[in-house]
Amino acid sequence: MKKRIYGSTVALLMATLVMTAMWTGCTGKKYQVPIGVITYSWRSMPGSAEDIINYCKQTGITTIELMGNVVEEYAGAPTDKEKLREWRISGEPAKKYRELRKMFDDAGVGIHIVKFSPAGWSDEEIDYAFESAKILGAKGVSNEIGHEAAKRLGAFAEKHDMYAVFHNHGQPRDPNFNFEEYLAYSPNNMLNLDVGHYFGATGKHPNALIEKLHDRIYSIHLKDKTGKDGDPPDTNKPWGEGDTPLKDILQLIQQNQWNIYCDIELEYEIPEGSDAVTETKKCVEFCKNALQ
């Protein structure tokens, strides 16, 4: 006679199977946290769209937050302010953006955010920002966090079925600062949480905030800094030399399989004899080692 498995044993077995599936995913491997880069990281180097694609290939990056100036320069944007506004709303850039999208697609590089920072633009230009980002394959347009920006861009994000993604610097240093106030303006408002700036400004481990707001965090900027009480305080460091708990952050996202882009933002001083691409590659390796 076969032995029967009763209640508690079955429950334990099922829980074990579920946890194993969550950890390994369908492939039998750990969840692959999407490691990308904000292309601002390569500001010290030539910055054409073709250059950006080449840097991605050199560093193994396959997803990016693309700076708006790279996008508009590729499309031939005029430099005169009034002409630039007219050009943006003319409809002319769309063809070039479809061409640019194909270039990145062919190179195996996805664009998840375009950093147009359009909160101070006219309504027509904000429409252009979201429409252009959508053509490029992005789901979000990013901007610095602020009440007016969150209120204004949230409505446009809803209109275009996209995200308005808000980036922080040192604002959380203010004890009255609350990310949720900015998210409340629209369900399409999301965070681009800069964990380095957050840790540098507050000294608090970012994981508590990430756990609380993970479903409203579209992306994270990764950098290593000292904390607010460090020596010196709130200072960018080569990865592994600061105090930001990057490994903890990456592993939290991996273990929970949260769909959060983790983008390297290179801000520490580049050592003599190196360059931004070489240093970005070191950051990629740091992430890989943290996620083994």
Give a topology summary.
Layout: H1 7-24, E1 35-38, H2 49-59, E2 63-67, H3 68-74, H4 81-88, H5 93-106, E3 110-115, H6 123-135, E4 140-144, H7 147-159, E5 163-167, H8 179-183, E6 189-194, H9 195-202, H10 207-213, E7 217-222, E8 224-225, E9 236-237, H11 246-256, E10 261-264, H12 276-290
Parallel strand pairs: 1-2, 1-10, 2-3, 3-4, 4-5, 5-6, 6-7, 7-10
Antiparallel strand pairs: 8-9
Characterise this structure.
45% of the residues lie in helices and 15% in strands. The chain has twelve helices and ten strands. Residues 1-27 have low confidence and may be disordered. It has one domain: Divalent-metal-dependent TIM barrel enzymes (TIM Barrel, Alpha-Beta Barrel). The strands form two sheets. An eight-stranded parallel barrel has the order 1-2-3-4-5-6-7-10, surrounded by six helices. Strands 8-9 form a two-stranded antiparallel ribbon. The longest helix is centred in the first third of the chain and has 18 residues, at 7-24. The radius of gyration is 21 Å and the shape is globular. By secondary structure, the chain is of the alpha/beta class. Helix 2 (49-59) links the parallel strand 1 (35-38) and strand 2 (63-67).
